[in-house]
């Protein structure tokens, strides 16, 4: 069963990272998409640039819509894990699945150089989301109270993970997020 998906991210890369290094990191995804390189990844939406590396700005840009099957997610997971060590900082990758019934399902994937960097990016996104949601109804002071609780939860979570038996460090993580539509 095939479905349509949209990937969106602006991923800052380390100085000195080349387009070839990014292509090597993304090899599982490129292979899945039957693409020789980044330039071969074309979006179903003509106004979207697909996957490209801006060497001047050191930014890997993902704005791609395509049809996928079941083995897409493992290929994407491995590609993001490979890409992590090349990243300057951790950022979110928005994944939107367009379901047959007309609904869409959105997820956030996080990619970054270390588990701690990813944890901080997750904290930042959560605080932005919670703040925006609560600001519609409550004063800044009340929102700040909730943000302090969320910040504390992330701090406790990090300390709990730090005391765990050494688990492999991952270069990406997944989270769900309310849908956000991109207008290009």
Characterization of the model:
With 184 residues, the protein is of the alpha+beta class. The protein has two domains: 3-113 and 169-176, no CATH class; 116-163. The protein contains five helices and six strands; from the N terminus they run E-H-H-E-E-H-E-E-H-H-E. It has helices spanning 19-25, 27-32, 72-83, 115-135, 140-163; strands at 3-12, 50-54, 59-68, 91-98, 104-111, 172-176. Strands 2-3-1-4-5-6 form a six-stranded antiparallel β-sheet. The radius of gyration is 18 Å and the shape is globular. The two termini are 28 Å apart.
Number of strands: 6
Mean pLDDT: 87
Strand order of the main beta sheet, please? 2-3-1-4-5-6
Strand content: 25-35%
| Rg, nearest Å | 18 Å
Cα(first) to Cα(last) distance is 28 Å
**What is the count of distinct domains?**
2
Low-confidence stretches: 165-173, 178-184
Decide which structural class fits the backbone: alpha+beta
Order of helices and strands: EHHEEHEEHHE
Question: Level of helix content?
Answer: 25-40%
Largest sheet: 6 strands, antiparallel
Work out the helix count.
Answer: 5
Shape: globular
